[in-house]
Amino acid sequence: MTHVDGNALAGAFATTLGIDITATIGRCRGCGNSFDLARTHAFITAMGAVMRCSDCQAVLAVIVQNPREALVNLSGLAYITVPSL
Ligand SMILES: [Zn+2]
After folding, report:
1. How far does residue 77's CA lie from ligand 1's centre (Å)?
2. In tens digits, what is the pLDDT along the chain, a chain of 85 residues?
3. Coil, strand, or helix at residue 55?
4. What spacing in Å lies between the alpha carbon of 22 and ligand 1's midpoint?
């Protein structure tokens, strides 16, 4: 399956979480590297989307949407840094 860069998930995160986390820096739980989430790998299907670490390919985040709700799993991220307003 081919991927696009993490920027492709900007709208999905903004819609489900109210924040575009692809504009933040995150740390991968798998390899410990920190990077702009915009440069991760995004795999998008009709069922949902997966964000993977571009360094170690660990799953960082998953978004699954159904007509009633969205399920968002961010367990592959140790943290994200959100700039102060
Ligand atoms: Zn990683």
Report:
1. 9
2. 799 999 999 999 999 999 999 999 999 999 999 999 999 999 999 889 999 999 999 999 999 988 899 999 999 999 999 888 7
3. coil
4. 15
Question: β-strands 48-52, 41-44: how paired?
Answer: antiparallel
Burial degree of 37 (CB within 10 A; 0-12, 13-18, 19+): buried
pTM over 0.85: yes
Contacts of 21 (CB under 8 A, 6+ apart): 13, 37, 61, 74, 80
Can you name the residues that pair with 77 across neighbouring β-strands? 28
Contacts of 23 (CB under 8 A, 6+ apart): 10, 37, 38
- Name residues with Cβ closer than 5 Å to ligand 1, which is an ion: 28, 30-31, 53, 55-56, 58
